[in-house]
Predict the 3D structure of the following.
Amino acid sequence: MSKKKVGSVLVVGAGIAGIQSSLDLANSGFKVYLLEQTPAIGGTMAQLDKTFPTNDCAMCIVSPKLVDCGRHPNIEIITNAELGKVVGEAGNFKVEVKKNPRYVDEDKCTGCAACTQNCPVSIALYPVEKIYIKLKDEDLKKVKPIMDKYRDQKGNLLPILQQINKEFRYLPEDILRYVSDELDVHLADIYNIVTFYNAFNLEPRGKYIVTVCIGTACHVQGAPGLIEALEGELGIKVGETTKDMNFTLETARCFGCCGLAPVITVNEDVHGKLKRADIPRIVKNYKSMEEKQDA
Ligand code: FES
């Protein structure tokens, strides 16, 4: 006959280990106090894309546990707090917890972030003088038609950023400031968006984006060799751009054409079933296309 568990437990740290321990303890009948120093539970795993060695989606593993933890009647989550004094001995102790202020009413906050845009500290007490950005003529010639096309449309920020990213192959800071002025959108909100989506680039990129698939099928069929060959041919490492701004070398996971593995793309062109020896020819083709255009 199982004996009803009594007593309470303190778990310090709400990363994946702390969360799982809390769930196990709470399911076995203990009252669990889960203490976390940061404002949210989840730890590093909640910030990861994939997990080693299976490449499983980190959030797919951790998010059901976050929900279980948040809803479990035996778990009390104490975030934004630090452990102070511990008095007593194993099995019978008291702890002092220092709860840091959150500056919002936790019961009412929905995390919509509207308060950051209307912060009385930055807006009312210390009004920031607006700086109007004057773009270079050649940049203005490219940006103005984009702004004119989308200016009056609802939800225009994303398409404007996409078009600028396409036109310049990245998002120059002065142009983002210009967009912020023109649309009267806070620059921080623009950076929120452009740093969230992988499709936006904040660093200049080459005319030809060479992307090597490092998904499982391509990896086992020789993607590492292709990367080595491309690094040799282009004289750059993955993530870098050639000095003449013609080539950027990147990697990505699974283009959805594993039957062609190993695969690389050069802008929109797909090159499949490659061997290392094919790389010099492919690079040469793009280099000679560039030379013809320059001639
Ligand atoms: S793993 Fe490379 S295309 Fe799928």
